[in-house]
């Protein structure tokens, strides 16, 4: 995806504060953090949203979940975190490349996040 913002971060065309990387997954700090820890975990492969994911995406989507706790702990969210994936218009998705927010810190995130 030539013009996709997060694909451009994967290709190194736009800088990002990377906090985790493997062959399938990249994680970097959100540019507008909502909490002391706010990381976005993305598949390196372009998937527009969870509404566009298929069973073939099971491994990378599973990996995003599987690496989440280690990323959170590494960033200082040592006693849990919230993971959020916004999907489509109703979900309030702004960047059309699947991403999981990891939000946390030392204080509870609260019942829900306001935008
Ligand atoms: P969403 O509303 O779930 O699509 O979230 C998109 C997120 O991407 C927002 O929290 C933005 O702050 C974040 N964001 C947008 N551009 C960048 C960027 N260049 N680097 C890091 N995070 C970004
Ligand atoms: Zn993309």
Using brief descriptors, characterize the structure shown.
5 strands, binds zinc ion, binds adenosine monophosphate, HIT family, subunit A, 5-stranded antiparallel beta sheet, 115 residues
Description:
- The chain has 115 residues and is α+β, with helices and mostly antiparallel strands.
- The protein has a single domain, classed as HIT-like (HIT family, subunit A), CATH 3.30.428.10.
- Helices cover 23% and strands 21% of the residues.
- The chain contains 4 helices and 5 strands.
- A 5-stranded antiparallel β-sheet has the order 1-2-3-5-4, with helices on one face.
- Strand 1 and strand 2 form a beta hairpin.
- The protein is globular.
- The N and C termini lie far apart (27 Å).
- The mean pLDDT is 96.
- The structure holds adenosine monophosphate (AMP) and zinc ion.
- Adenosine monophosphate (AMP) binds next to loops.
